[in-house]
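Hi X.,

You mentioned you wanted examples for the new student's onboarding notes, showing what a folding record looks like when two proteins sit in one file. Here is a clean example. The first protein comes first, with its sequence line followed by its structure tokens.
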Amino acid sequence: MKNFLNRGFWVALFILFFAGGLGLYLKEFRILVVIIQAVLLIVVILSRHKVFLPKGFLLFILFLLLIWLNMAWSKGRLATLEYLILLSGGGAFWLLFFNLGEKFKDTFGRLVIVLGIVYGGSFLVNLLLFPQVPIRSWTLYLPGAISRNHNHLGDLWAVVMLLVVHKLLTRPKWWHWVVSAVGVFFLAVSLSRSAYLSLGIGAFYLFNKLGLAKRYRSFYILFLVLAASLFLYAAFFKSTLLARPYVGQVLWGFSKWPWGVGVGNFGIISADSQSPWWNVPTRAGIVTTSAHNLALEMISGMGVLGFVFAFWLVYVLVDILKNSKEALFSAIFLAIGVNFMFDTTYYIPTMLWLWFASLGLSLKR
């Protein structure tokens, strides 16, 4: 009975994570997320005599309360509510994996690899059979840009590659090399520079945290060269500097709206014709709906209150760098965090949940 319930839990978790990467823009899905969050918290409470709060959790709860308060003056309350639901769901996964992390460690890695394979298969099916599929900016396998030169599949596979690299360094098997070769292909076709950067940072941390940078020097250099080569490869297909005016737009928006425009409403700042950045083109033309940086997204939406999120992020990063003994999950948290600083993947529920889950596993109770 216990094994049956355990398998059922992981099946439900896989379905949720899979649905969260489909780019569903349905009210029903947002309601489902809220229900799942409540169920996850109940699972934690019922499975332990005492629930332990990770360091920084109360500060994160304060941040969520501030987002709720932010809806009072938000220029688009539904968008702010969506972010509140997404981030509170992330907090639920953080709490869950922090309290039950020892049970989830191996299964979590397999879950992510299976997700990568399923989404990779979906990408190939669409590429071969339905090449003119619609643009969906927040899916993990469909084109994410009008020019079709960007796909978030690579962002997920950067995480899968870290898991596979860890296996190759500790308990290598022949199929790990096969998955690695497939991963290089998916990374290359995604043309996601944020994925390449996150892979490089994650691999750098993983090798050095395990103390294997010298022992596996050739392997270590190979992965760093791979990430750099893919980044340069993508640079041939799209601009790097001219496609990133978002920092300037955030600074302008902060000066005009010091209390923010509401989380999820960055498009209002980007569309402001009085901004000195108005004539600077982005990948979507002149106006973009996202700041392409999770911290800047919070600051532009919440103004001065958004610095609470920045402080929380620095706090947990310092805690991980100083105290974490889980090299793999720390590397995953860092890699996804880097990804969130250069892309809009934080609006994809699956990527956000993986980030918080890896945070819980990085600093177990």
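Then the second protein repeats the pattern, sequence line and then tokens:
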Amino acid sequence: MRCIGIFGGTFDPIHYGHLRTAYETRAKLGFDEVRFVPCANPPHRQTAVTASEIRLRMLEAAVAAEPGFVIDERELARPGPSYTVDTLSSLRAELPDEALCLLLGMDAFLDLPSWHEWERLLELAHIVVAHRPGWQVPREGALGRLLEQSRTAHRHDLERARAGRIHIESVTQLEVSSTELRRSIRAGIAPKYLLPESVWRIIVETNCYAQQAET
């Protein structure tokens, strides 16, 4: 059974924190590919998102040289809020026999009960949580119960079923924030060593973060 990582986000901009997480989880867990799914209308975000055409260009530039990294544009083509459950439902309909692994940071995983129809996610995919030092794995509440029922420490369990398991994988600690990158760029500080040079060239060309306000 093929095993596919699904990595969603606004990628505004994509940076080395995103890319390293995707690279490490693919290498350690044996994914056949990682699909980057840029979000069109993030349900939990109130501030403006950079135009999808620019974010897509940056993403294409960032992953162009990495075999096994692909871009899936389905959320950009779909109207309304970009609910993850809808994306996974669409992927599952297209890939009925593949193991799908939704990649989340621990911060996103801890916020999972606020997501639209979050209880359905494990019906459609596995969840792989990229864990960094400083975050605590939940022991109680809805997520604690979910982990007790579904957690596995064995990567091969992700290949043996299409969905239904939660795996926590330690990754390199790269605390890069897209929000802080945008603020620094507006302040005139180049994001050297934080994102690919090809992405920086697009930011300079489009001047996409010059006037964008943060809240």
